[in-house]
Amino acid sequence: MRGGRRLFPLLPLALLPLALLPGLCHGREPAPGAVTCGSVLKLLNTRHSVRLHSHEVKYGSGSGQQSVTGVEASDDANSYWRIRGKSDNSCQRGTPVKCGQAIRLTHVNTGKNLHTHHFPSPLSNNQEVSAFGDDGEGDDLDVWIVQCTGTYWEREDAVRFKHVGTEVFLSITGEQYGHPIRGQREVHGMPAANHHNYWKAMEGVFIKPSLDPAKHDEL
After folding, report:
1. Total domains, the chain
2. Is residue 32 a part of any domain in this protein?
3. What pLDDT is attached to residue 2?
4. What is the CATH number of the domain that holds 151?
């Protein structure tokens, strides 16, 4: 005892109780590989090895909205999508996306949201998937649920996207377009969960996971 205070020996960091280490939060801290709100990424269909893509080419049938396709090239700038919440305040930048969470996917180059509705897709006669809206604002048919295992959507996970309004899964089955988008694959909605609707996060700018939305350093 010195001056009424007990002096404890300095312990190596590894021996300190978890409760004394800042930031550990008893298992609440997300894994470093969690996909986060505000991140910009490409999505790879694991069955067909093509990335989710859009461009200023409209469907010639169905809704006539901006088409969504799958492309093999990994370096196409039209394959970037930004992760956003169902509403602007429901998915703050840097917050890890939970399994079962409702999100929007906004096409970076055109500002339109991934969308589906009760129109037949041009090639397979499944449900048409389009890009819709202006400057990231569309309607209620832009909302998808992330289906994965565990607590958070991890970058290494293969996940599904289930549409809230029509309950179809974002899918590719391999049908290819001709002119003017020759070789690109049809993207559509399917009512059943199967191996055609698994997607994995690939290239992009990922916001560092944090339970504190103010911490949003880029990896």
Report:
1. 1
2. no
3. 44
4. 2.80.10.50
